Amino acid sequence: MDINEITAKAAAKIDAARDAKVNAVKTAAASGVEVQEAARLLVAAEQKYAKDYQTALRTDWTESDLRGFGLDAPTKKAGGRPRGRKAAPEAAHVTGASDK
């Protein structure tokens, strides 16, 4: 075997190892994207379920009724506008303090 054959075999071995490493990262990255998409879909499904569950409660079904049908209360609340809070009275202005 001459020097050129030896270096060619060494280069081929390095290239094959590099390709295997790159493919492993590519596969892991694709799986990561799938997990992120599944998580996004789960959040959307949980929000929809929470809204639909609240709609069922507003149509005079009770939580007990819904449990009897096999429907558990949602683990997360439905999204939407937060309830308004009563404004706290403003703190009394301190006499003698400068307003700079």
Measured as a percent range, the helix fraction is: 55-70%
Number of helices: 2
* Model regions low in confidence, pLDDT < 50 over at least 5 residues: none
Largest sheet report: none
Identify the overall geometry. rod-shaped
> From the structure provided, what is the oligomeric state, counting identical versus distinct chains?
single chain
Mean pLDDT: 88
What is the structural class?
A: mainly alpha
- What's the end-to-end separation, in Å? 87 Å
Kindly estimate the percentage of residues that lie in beta strands according to DSSP.
Answer: under 5%
Number of strands: 0
Helix and strand string, N-terminal first? HH
- Gyration radius, to the nearest Å? 31 Å
Can you walk me through this structure?
The protein is mainly α and 100 residues long. Helices cover 62% and strands 0% of the residues. The protein is built from two helices and no strands. The protein has helices at 3-58, 63-68. The longest helix is centred in the first third of the chain and has 56 residues, at 3-58. It is rod-shaped. It starts with a helix and ends in a 32-residue tail after the last helix. The relative contact order is 0.07.
